[in-house]
């Protein structure tokens, strides 16, 4: 399995292009199941998770055409045309769903279009139990009959068409909001989703569905109102820039005390992350192509962070900020409120000399003057990138094992960092024991 080798200590300087948002693409792609016409998605990132979703959709009968590279010659910004002229199979098998939880996002569209679906239960994953009970309860409210049999969610809709309902989510769920939003577009009557997730990726989906002919009000607010229509049509839609990739490179600039311009990034989506980092001493400035992040003029100080649903501080940036705080002056308290068990990067960062104590859902991080390179193991997507960031700042060599997690969510990560002066390379290995 590939590894990433980093020799840390170089302040990064240069430009980094930001790709399309993985989590937006993963919900926009299954939206193609809602129509027989073609949904053309541009600015699609080139990532393993996107391939997994494409494979899943292909076995439901979706035809796909991938249109080359971005005009700038990069690998990002690809265009994918998805056509679900006929859905030939309504089962999402275990082998694909187990690779990626977001596979459950085919459930709402399949039920809405075909009145039946069989989707493998995603099961537990490294960052907590992550159930889908809220998705299922809401679909039942819309008239679906749901059973769990042999590890599969088996659902059908008596009468064939879902009915509008008032769905009150007791807790904010991104995937739950997306599944119900898609299902509601073709349901009979009005669906009101209360306590809806306001993440920009949810709004991106809603705007795309509108472009497909859906009737949705309240986009970007906690109350989404959807009036079902008989059918949706195709459209062309550009995926929004990835705010977690953006935030990760913001930290790369900060942790190396460097100066990076992020091209194509949307600063307005980064407010909670920017606020925390500005308080720590990082400077930001708009540029014509995006914005600039500087940490070469002021010391970085410890600040407290708490993860929350959008517009609060994202859980998907928690591990990266912890790496930064490990190098700050003073202490920081980081509290995780979205996922239990999302501190698996702590023992690995500690192996690099970080001083971190976990108490329940909070971690106290006491900054050290310098981390030291070490062999480390990635456990999930954001944890693995936090180890890469720590390696960029550390003295000596860091070897990050199990980089397949990184490839799920970061496109050309070593190339983008090396272009800013990082000493980083991918070490190919065919040894199955690793
Ligand atoms: C999405 C993102 C993920 C991000 C997360 C929170 C995608 C593909 N993934 O995941 O990167 O970290 O939002 O911003 O977009 N919950 C339940 N029952 C449910 C659904 C959720 O208890 O039916 C709980 C979860 O266990 C978790 C919390 O609600 O504690 C939030 O989960 P949710 O927002 O649904 O996350 P995902 O959509 O899986």
How would you describe what is shown here?
By secondary structure, the chain is an alpha/beta fold. The chain is 29% helix and 25% strand. It has helices at 22-28, 48-59, 94-97, 107-114, 133-141, 174-185, 200-211, 243-255, 271-280, 318-325, 345-351, 381-393, 404-409, 413-418, and strands at residues 3-7, 13-17, 38-44, 63-67, 78-83, 91-92, 116-120, 145-149, 152-156, 166-168, 190-194, 215-217, 223-227, 235-238, 259-263, 283-286, 290-294, 305-306, 331-335, 355-359, 362-366, 375-377, 397-401, 423-427. Strand 16 (283-286) and strand 17 (290-294) form a beta hairpin. Helix 1 (22-28) runs parallel beside helix 7, helix 4 packs parallel to helix 6 (174-185) and helix 6 (174-185) runs parallel beside helix 7 (200-211). The longest helix is centred in the middle third of the chain and has 13 residues, at 243-255. The radius of gyration is 22 Å and the shape is elongated. Mean pLDDT is 94; it is low at 71-75. The structure holds uridine-diphosphate-N-acetylglucosamine (UD1). Uridine-diphosphate-N-acetylglucosamine binds at residues 23, 26, 101-102, 128, 130-135, 171, 173-176, 201, 315-316, 338-339.
> Stretches where pLDDT falls below 50 for ≥5 residues?
71-75
Strand order of the largest sheet: 22-23-1-24
What would you call the shape? elongated
Report the portion of residues in β strands. 25-35%
Bound molecules: uridine-diphosphate-N-acetylglucosamine
Roughly what percent helix? 25-40%
Mean pLDDT: 94
How far apart are the first and last residues' alpha carbons, in Å?
6 Å
Question: What Rg is obtained from the alpha carbons, in whole angstroms?
Answer: 22 Å
Total beta strand runs: 24
